[in-house]
Design a protein that fits this description.
The protein is built from two helices and four strands; from the N terminus they run βαββαβ. It is of the alpha+beta class. It has a single domain, classed as Alpha-Beta Plaits (2-Layer Sandwich). β2 and β3 form a beta hairpin. The mean pLDDT is 89. The structure holds iron/sulfur cluster (SF4). Iron/sulfur cluster binds next to α1.
């Protein structure tokens, strides 16, 4: 289950967000490409645009259900976005799965 305090910093404010447990399997940005995007250098997905239409929302719900690591949070609209995420040094942790290096 995604934790708001563990969200990646690239998320835009809103109901949905991705946290650091993302393994970047690519499912969410394939399912909802107008909402999720890969952060190529870091190897995780993030929300770059919150869904606005019923079609986008449906696709996001599909991505939430399909995420293998449950890394997509759905309670962002109940959270305080002025609180920064927990400190994390992504450079010291290899995030990108080995199969995505080529
Ligand atoms: S579906 Fe989940 S694990 Fe896969 S890229 Fe999206 S947030 Fe990350």
């Amino acid at each position: 289950m995604a934790k708001f305090e563990d969200r990646v910093v690239q998320n835009v404010r809103g109901k949905f967000y991705v946290d650091w447990s993302c393994i970047y399997c690519g499912l969410c940005d394939e399912t909802a490409p107008t909402v999720f995007r890969e952060h190529k250098e870091r190897g995780w997905a993030y929300v770059f645009h919150q869904p606005e239409t019923p079609e986008e929302l449906e696709r996001v719900r599909e991505a939430v259900e399909g995420c293998p690591t449950e890394s997509i949070g759905t309670d962002g609209d109940e959270q305080d976005w002025s609180r920064p995420p927990k400190t994390y040094d992504p450079v010291s942790v290899q995030r990108k799965p080995w199969w995505r290096f080529w």
